[in-house]
Design brief:
The complex is a heterodimer of chains A (112) and B (115). Chain A is mainly beta and 112 residues long. Chain A has strands at residues 4-5, 11-14, 19-25, 32-38, 45-50, 54-58, 61-66, 71-76, 85-92, 101-102, 106-111. In chain A, the strands form two sheets. In chain A, strands 2, 4, 5, 9, 10 and 11 form a six-stranded mixed β-sheet that branches. Chain B has strands at residues 5-7, 10-13, 19-24, 31-37, 44-50, 53-57, 64-68, 74-78, 87-94, 105-106, 110-114. The chains are: A mainly beta (112), B mainly beta (115).
């Protein structure tokens, strides 16, 4: 079982819609969770970090964490074509290691 | 931009050769991690350096080695290159500050092609 699972997509949404990206993880000791955005041919860019159960909002982005169910999600409101990218989920902590492990990413396409 | 720099941007090598990739961490960051990202995959952790010492290693063979210098810049060396080593190599810097210990800030990456 992979440590971090993401649907590779692509997830296609119309401009202005809410995009919902999901991620599950296997290590119950995980403490920190991250969402990165990666444009094609570029390096990952941190969007949000979340450490506690519940929702955390930053502009159009909302990260949701549910440790009991071992999932973390990212909502993008009012999606724009410029949001089209691959979104990487990562977790760290647990077993004494604070080195993040990444999922393979979900490709998001926002069409006009 | 994160302030993490990497060189070179692109590199083409042949099987069996050796390569050195370089990274300068963001100002104030004393920890550098290296990742390999194959096409369509997430970044895979190679190793991490903290204050010039290796601080963790992923599932990579010994021909992948590294170094961190007193100014916290770092090198990744790969010997006896194989075709499967073709990937984007990412350097990320971070600093141990409470719960943000593990937030990684990535450089632009080095695209390595092995022919």
């Amino acid at each position: 079982q992979k440590e971090v699972e993401q649907n590779s997509g692509p997830l296609s949404v119309p401009e202005g819609a809410i995009a919902s990206l999901n991620c599950t993880y296997s290590d119950r000791g995980s403490q920190s969770f991250f969402w990165y955005r990666q444009y094609s041919g570029k390096s990952p860019e941190l969007i949000m970090s979340i450490y506690s159960n519940g929702d955390q909002e930053d502009g159009r982005f909302t990260a949701q964490l549910n440790k009991a169910s071992q999932y973390v999600s990212l909502l993008i409101r009012d999606s724009q074509p410029s949001d089209s990218a691959t979104y990487l989920c990562a977790r760290s902590g647990g077993g004494g290691s604070y080195i993040p492990t990444f999922g393979r990413g979900t490709s998001l396409i926002v069409h006009p | 931009e994160t302030g993490v720099t990497q060189s070179p941007t692109h590199l083409i090598k042949t099987r069996g050769q050796q390569v050195t990739l370089r990274c300068s961490s963001q100002s104030g960051h004393n920890t550098v991690s290296w990742y390999q990202q194959a096409l369509g995959q997430g970044p895979q952790f190679i190793f991490q350096y903290y204050r010039e010492e290796e601080n963790g290693r992923g599932n990579f063979p010994p021909r992948f080695s590294g170094l961190q210098f007193p100014n916290y810049s770092s090198e990744l060396n790969v010997n006896a290159l194989e075709l499967d080593d073709s990937a984007l190599y990412l350097c990320a810097s971070s600093t141990p500050t409470g719960v943000s210990t593990d937030t990684q800030y990535f450089g632009p990456g080095t695209r390595l092609t092995v022919l």
